Amino acid sequence: MTAPVFVVDSLEGVGPGSIIDVEGPEGRHAVSVRRLQPGEDVVITDGRGRGAAGVVLSASGKDHLVVEPFEFPVEPEPSPRITVVQALPKGDRGELAVETMTETGVDAIVPWSAARCITQWKGDRGLKALAKWRATAREAGKQSRRLRFPEVADAATTKQVAALLAEADFAAVLHEERDYGSEPLATAELPAEGEIVLVVGPEGGVSPEELALFEEAGAKAYRLGRSVLRTSTAGTAATALLLGRTGRWS
């Protein structure tokens, strides 16, 4: 088993000879839930690429863990970087998509209010849903032992998604219908570095108007395979395919 990961706000200034206090919800999870004991291995991260691997010196109260780090791993900026624009699924399938994409290795997630989305984020409900997505990415990042967690952006409109696609080095809209000229993502020519942006539509599909706007921005339609995946799983499958093809999984 690899060492469990806990998150702190910052690792600025942490180095040989430092002592790290883990408190609050993270400390409570370590002390009261995981019941870590002195001498056990742990990894502390800021979720932005920096880590501190060490041993537990003490666990006190319900939420106070003291760690002595001895290694300081760094997870470099990924290249090429993979962003998935995820149309809002129904119910808790949005959190499922965020969780599995994070575990797989996606670098950024952009919630998208597509025209055919049944779910729409508005007002306090939207803020709560976004907070759930971000909390899910954080927990999945810890669970998968990542040091650099994916960014979950504010919900984007279709025009904002088009602007994001226009800036990408490779832009793709996952589309299962061959009538739209979709090509296999497995054979697409990919950049060796830069930004890859994938658009995953809602259960009802990307509308012709949205697809036309995305094509104007430079995105092409691609398909994954013979089977049609749900919106909550398509992004994970596409991310895995691209991580393998770009060499990030080599």
TrEMBL record:
| Pfam families attached to this UniProt entry | Methyltrans_RNA, PUA_4
Q: What is its main location?
A: cytoplasm
Ranges for the Ribosomal RNA small subunit methyltransferase E methyltransferase domain?
78-242
Reaction(s) this enzyme catalyzes, per UniProt: uridine(1498) in 16S rRNA + S-adenosyl-L-methionine = N(3)-methyluridine(1498) in 16S rRNA + S-adenosyl-L-homocysteine + H(+)
Nucleotide-binding as UniProt keyword: no
Give the E.C. number(s): 2.1.1.193
Annotated Ribosomal RNA small subunit methyltransferase E PUA-like domain ranges read 23-69
Name the UniProt key words of this record, in alphabetical order.
Answer: Cytoplasm, Methyltransferase, rRNA processing, S-adenosyl-L-methionine, Transferase
Q: Which residues cross the membrane?
A: none
Localization terms from the record: Cytoplasm
Q: What NCBIfam families is this protein classified in? A: PRK11713.2-3 (NF008693), RsmE family RNA methyltransferase (TIGR00046)
Job of this protein: Specifically methylates the N3 position of the uracil ring of uridine 1498 (m3U1498) in 16S rRNA. Acts on the fully assembled 30S ribosomal subunit.
Which PANTHER family does UniProt cross-reference here?
16S RRNA (URACIL(1498)-N(3))-METHYLTRANSFERASE (PTHR30027:SF3), RIBOSOMAL RNA SMALL SUBUNIT METHYLTRANSFERASE E (PTHR30027)
Q: Which family does it belong to?
A: Belongs to the RNA methyltransferase RsmE family.
Under which name does UniProt file this protein? Ribosomal RNA small subunit methyltransferase E
Source organism (scientific name): Streptomyces shaanxiensis
